[in-house]
Design goal:
Radius of gyration: 27 Å
Structural class: alpha+beta
Strand order of the largest sheet: 13-12-9-10-11-14-22-20-19
Largest sheet: 9 strands, antiparallel
Distance between the termini: 74 Å
Helix content: 10-25%
């Protein structure tokens, strides 16, 4: 009987596993890096063990330290979560060798699926349809997908549309794969831009029972990483769904699988499906399967690890569940990661609790610091409803109304995607977000001007004296406040508070009903709206039921030292310089990648702002840089 479980992970998944442990009466042990010393998952555990350092390679990827932590804390089992060491056969074996229970499949099963190329050969022998790896791609095979043979999550993956690009993209994928997974093996396969990513949840015990616990569609992806998932996968004929489940079960049986796992397939436009890989762990998106089956997959993992038998068949699915991943990133700028303090995060359900048809799984809370060291996911929000349309509507509304004050997120993209006609009609494929990028990431300033007015009036209320702010016996100049939107547009608010009420330039039809430091009620024509206002330093968040407008108060007297020289390339995020593709003195063209930064498990290019000469290069590979650090300078011909 398990009595104390260590989770070899952090954030949301650690809290998720701890929740089930608390329900089952199992004590919990956390591990943490130095940046995570005060993280929610650490405080919620019964015991916590420090892993000195910040980088994953020094902390959450150190299997020897984690095994030692389990033994020192008196844990008798280790749950790997997802990511980090969750699919590392050597770590699984080390856990077992230490006399601990491994909450996962046998190391041999992990090893069998550890290489995508070897897994494809194994699955083909088991009769599972596969998309063959290409040893010598030709023009007829284009477009291609270069993929890392080990690991996943979109790392070490490149789309290639011409053979001339192939050598460079292979080298880039190998470098990224080696850094992420310790193996630089990559391979090529045909890229199906209109294919769907469909997967089957598996659960198997040590007595020969293998469940196909429904299926999921995970086609909405950015950078080959999932963003929106749902169960069941919509629009699949019954016969094809049955064949998909049978192939997944065959894949599990072929490697003697035990525990929770997922068989992933690519569904082509012609209805055929091909095996992609098997994830030998719990998936990020497992909550949608739990929502439609009523199962607790973590509890089942623990039961199987204790030797219990599964029932002969899994429960049927009911209704539809959709999950969105809330990331700290800016979709309008190539999904650039965002860091900083999460001042306030509030959904309509308490954190980590099931309430009605909504669920929130989160690794953060008010005041959490979002660092560049780990994945950019803040939380997952899941909605269940009897129908797919109802689930999408419920989820979109909940995410839109969430109070979210802090780094830029993909919240607006998620809401728009859930409400997009193509999504609601089930026209899904892995290129969906790129195809509809114009609709999903277009600036939306339709309420920004009034939000700025509300922010200015709330600020005035916070400075209120016995005489109304801006009130004079004689006419005077209007009060002036300036704000900058997230898209760098500057808004100027000019207003007077007179005996007859509000007089605001550019808002002649707006009347002030009430204003306090945290709420302003305005009447626009015959429509009354209340704006909730929160301020943290110069950052201001103005909320209505339609969404949130993030503003930055512009100082009345700008700092003259804040200017940068023309052509200066500043770090758009904290991160590590991983590659440099140009040298000082080179002639460069606008948009040419000059170097690459890695932050939050993703690579981001820094490009030349204009044609010219790379006159300065201050970055070096391996260098850690802070937000706004000067990386390089491009001098235009006119400046030379």
């Amino acid at each position: 009987m398990l009595t104390n479980l260590l989770v070899a992970n952090r954030g949301e998944i650690a809290r998720r596993v701890f929740r089930t442990c608390r329900a089952l009466g199992i004590a919990t042990t956390a591990v943490h890096s130095d940046p995570d010393a005060d993280a929610p998952h650490v405080r919620e555990a019964d015991a916590a063990v420090r892993l000195p350092g910040a980088a994953p390679a020094d902390t959450y990827l150190r299997g020897d330290l984690i095994v030692r932590a389990a033994l020192d804390a008196g844990a008798d089992a280790v749950h790997p979560g997802y990511g980090f060491l969750s699919e590392n056969a050597e770590f699984a074996q080390a856990v077992l060798d230490a006399g601990l229970t491994w909450i996962g499949p046998p190391p041999a099963a992990i090893a069998a699926m550890g290489s995508k190329t070897a897994a494809k050969r194994l699955m083909a022998r088991a009769g599972v349809p596969v998309l063959d790896a290409l040893t010598e791609p030709t023009e007829a095979d284009l477009p291609l997908l270069v993929k890392a043979a080990a690991g996943g999550g979109g790392r070490g993956m490149r789309v290639v549309r011409s053979l001339a690009e192939l050598p460079g993209e292979i080298e880039a994928a190998k470098a990224e794969a080696a850094k992420a997974f310790g193996s630089d093996e990559v391979f090529c396969e045909r890229y199906l831009p209109a294919g769907r990513h469909v997967e089957v949840q598996l659960m198997a015990d040590a007595h020969g029972t293998v469940w196909a616990v429904g299926d999921r569609d995970c086609s909405l992806q950015r950078r080959h990483q999932k963003v929106i998932e749902e169960a069941p996968a919509p629009g699949i004929p019954d016969g094809a769904r049955t064949a998909l489940h049978e192939a997944a079960v065959a894949a599990a049986r072929a490697i003697g699988y035990v525990g929770a796992g997922t068989a992933e397939f690519l569904l082509s436009e012609d209805g055929r499906f091909h095996f992609l890989e098997m994830n030998t762990r719990l998936q990020v998106e497992h909550p949608v399967t739990e929502a439609v089956t009523g199962l607790d997959l973590v509890a089942l993992q623990l039961a199987v690890a204790e030797g219990e038998k599964l029932a002969a068949t899994p429960p049927p699915t009911d209704g539809c569940a959709i999950e969105v991943r809330l990331y700290a990133e800016d979709p309008a700028h190539d999904h650039r990661p965002a860091t900083g303090t999460l001042h306030h995060f509030e959904l309509t359900v308490p954190h980590e609790e099931f309430i009605g048809t909504l669920r929130l799984d989160s690794g953060v809370e008010n005041g959490s610091t979002i660092t560049p060291h780990y994945d950019a996911m803040l939380a997952k929000v899941i909605a269940w409803a009897p129908t797919r349309t109802a689930a999408a509507r419920r989820l979109a509304d909940a995410v839109a109304r969430a109070r979210l004050h802090g780094p830029t997120t993909n919240r607006e993209l998620l809401v728009r995607a859930l409400r997009h006609p193509a999504f609601l009609e089930g026209r899904l494929h892995t290129g969906f977000l790129a195809e509809h990028a114009a609709d999903l990431t277009a600036p939306d300033d339709k309420g920004a001007a009034r939000a700025a007015l509300a922010a200015a009036l709330a600020d005035a209320a916070s400075r209120r004296t016995p005489l109304p702010s801006g009130w004079r016996n004689l006419p005077s100049q209007p009060q002036v406040k300036r704000y900058r939107t997230a898209d760098a547009e500057e808004l100027e608010v000019r207003y007077r508070l007179t005996r007859d009420g509000l007089r605001a330039d550019d808002h002649p039809d707006t009347a002030l009903v009430a204003h306090e430091p945290d709420a302003v009620t305005l009447r626009h024509g015959g429509i009354r709206r209340t704006y909730r206002v929160a301020r943290y330093g110069e950052d201001v968040y103005v909320e209505t039921p339609d969404g949130t407008t993030a503003l930055t108060a512009v100082p009345r007297f700008p700092d003259p030292t804040a200017q940068t020289e023309p052509g200066a390339l500043l770090a758009p995020m904290p991160g590590t310089v991983v590659r440099i593709t140009a040298a000082a003195g080179d002639t460069v063209t606008a948009g040419q990648p000059l170097l690459f930064l890695e932050a939050m498990k993703m690579e981001h290019s820094v490009t030349a702002p204009a044609d010219g000469t790379l006159s300065e290069l201050r970055a070096t590979p391996g260098q850690q840089v802070e937000l706004g650090a000067l990386l390089a300078v491009v001098t235009s011909p006119q400046e030379a």
